[in-house]
Amino acid sequence: MLLEERLNEILSILEQKHTVTVQELTEVLNASESTIRRDLTVLHRKGLLVKVHGGATVTGINYSTKDDDVATRQDLNRNEKIRIAQYAATLVQPNDFVYIDAGTTTELLIDFLTEKKAIFVTNGINHAKKLVQKGLTCFLIGGELKLSTEAVIGSEAILNINKYNFTKGFWGTNGVSLQRGFSTPDINEAMTKKESMKQTKDCYIVCDSSKFNQISPVTFASFTDATVITTNLMEEQYKKLKNVKEV
Questions:
Q1: Whether residue 233 sits in one domain with residue 121
Q2: Structure pTM?
Q3: In the chain, how many domains are there?
Q4: What's the CATH number where 10 sits?
Q5: Where do the DSSP E strands lie in the chain?
Q6: pLDDT tens digit sequence for 130-140
């Protein structure tokens, strides 16, 4: 097994178990103890795990299993969200057909949109209202309304989404993880996000730095499926990745 493959496998195992011993890794990866210890040292220096006596533990991984309502989330990290939204809005070009996912950061994005020749589709009730108030062309996805996130979700929403082919799309997320990708607590909301991303050429996740190294119950996309637009990023392992844009 190549070094890079081995390192990724160690991180994957660690994310599942939270702690792991050198002995366990030697057996799973069929490598010597000295090799595993060197690998753990490399990952420790990169800040991807914490090396302890006899093994390693996760660093900064948190699990979140519930959605806060919109009112609670609106004021969290607001300055970060505004900077992210300002940059994201500049990506919309004439004749773009744009999907905007429900969420507090994606809602702020609408405040900075200036492109009148783009068409917008959203599953956010308040998003649709704001888009129309700005004089923009907007289509609202139909389906089940989830009150806590003000998002239209479920099988009917997916049927609506599947008829469209978007040039660009912007999504929120509850968690960002190299191994587990982008995740959210609700399975119906996750499936709606997943299907809309499948229908989109250029996908963007807009999220503040608090979402990194967070994991929610349902993954809706792999980490490499989208460009992440964020700011004030502290985690070194994300800073140099090609699909992470820090603004």
A1: yes
A2: 0.76
A3: 2
A4: 1.10.10.10
A5: 19-21, 50-52, 55-57, 62-63, 97-100, 119-122, 137-140, 144-146, 151-153, 166-171, 175-177, 181-184, 200-206, 214-215, 218-221, 227-230, 244-246
A6: 999 999 999 99
